[in-house]
TrEMBL record:
<dbReference type="GO" id="GO:0048788">
    <property type="term" value="C:cytoskeleton of presynaptic active zone"/>
</dbReference>
<feature type="region of interest" description="Disordered">
    <location>
        <begin position="1"/>
        <end position="28"/>
    </location>
</feature>
<dbReference type="GO" id="GO:0031267">
    <property type="term" value="F:small GTPase binding"/>
</dbReference>
<feature type="compositionally biased region" description="Pro residues">
    <location>
        <begin position="10"/>
        <end position="21"/>
    </location>
</feature>
<dbReference type="GO" id="GO:0050806">
    <property type="term" value="P:positive regulation of synaptic transmission"/>
</dbReference>
<dbReference type="GO" id="GO:0048791">
    <property type="term" value="P:calcium ion-regulated exocytosis of neurotransmitter"/>
</dbReference>
<dbReference type="InterPro" id="IPR039032">
    <property type="entry name" value="Rim-like"/>
</dbReference>
<dbReference type="GO" id="GO:0048167">
    <property type="term" value="P:regulation of synaptic plasticity"/>
</dbReference>
<feature type="domain" description="RabBD">
    <location>
        <begin position="23"/>
        <end position="82"/>
    </location>
</feature>
<dbReference type="GO" id="GO:0042391">
    <property type="term" value="P:regulation of membrane potential"/>
</dbReference>
<dbReference type="GO" id="GO:2000300">
    <property type="term" value="P:regulation of synaptic vesicle exocytosis"/>
</dbReference>
<dbReference type="GO" id="GO:0044325">
    <property type="term" value="F:transmembrane transporter binding"/>
</dbReference>
<protein>
    <recommendedName>
        <fullName>RabBD domain-containing protein</fullName>
    </recommendedName>
</protein>
<dbReference type="GO" id="GO:0042734">
    <property type="term" value="C:presynaptic membrane"/>
</dbReference>
<dbReference type="GO" id="GO:0006886">
    <property type="term" value="P:intracellular protein transport"/>
</dbReference>
<dbReference type="InterPro" id="IPR013083">
    <property type="entry name" value="Znf_RING/FYVE/PHD"/>
</dbReference>
<dbReference type="InterPro" id="IPR010911">
    <property type="entry name" value="Rab_BD"/>
</dbReference>
Amino acid sequence: MSASVGPRGGPRPPTAPPSMPELPDLSHLTEEERKIIMAVMVRQREEEAKEQQAMIKEEKPIQAKTVNLVGNKKPPQQNDIS
């Protein structure tokens, strides 16, 4: 049995990063331990958001520049006839 690898001959299209999974069962922890874990999870979400924003800012379009040639010289014609 073979696994699906996306379109033949090309990479898979980018996918959205997985969202934060539902909260794990923290009922067996103390209140202090729960607060610590929740703070870590909040920081993780914030860091992921910062990384995503940084990636969006880096994706700037390439701007073409116009070049004006000096003079009216044309390149020499080449004959392909031998």
